[in-house]
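In full, the data.
>
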Amino acid sequence: MTIQNKRLSLIFGTIGGMLLVPFIAMQFTQEVNWSAADFIIAALLLSAAGLGIELVLRKVTSTRNRLIVCGIIMLLLVLVWAELAVGIFGTRFAGS
């Protein structure tokens, strides 16, 4: 198994682990109430970010440029996640 395939396995394993957190929390509290659509959207967002970062790591050779592009990807992930979660920008995506 190459390092790139190991990285992909790590990315998808991490995404699965991250999605287990709200799933397990739902078993113990009413405060966390995700639907199947919430899990699908979260998986898609995390997968897009993870695969985008993997693409950057494969194609961009400069460490400085890698950090910049990966930072932009993470910033976009956080902004979209926050908008979908609480509607900080008031767009239609958040149901506002």
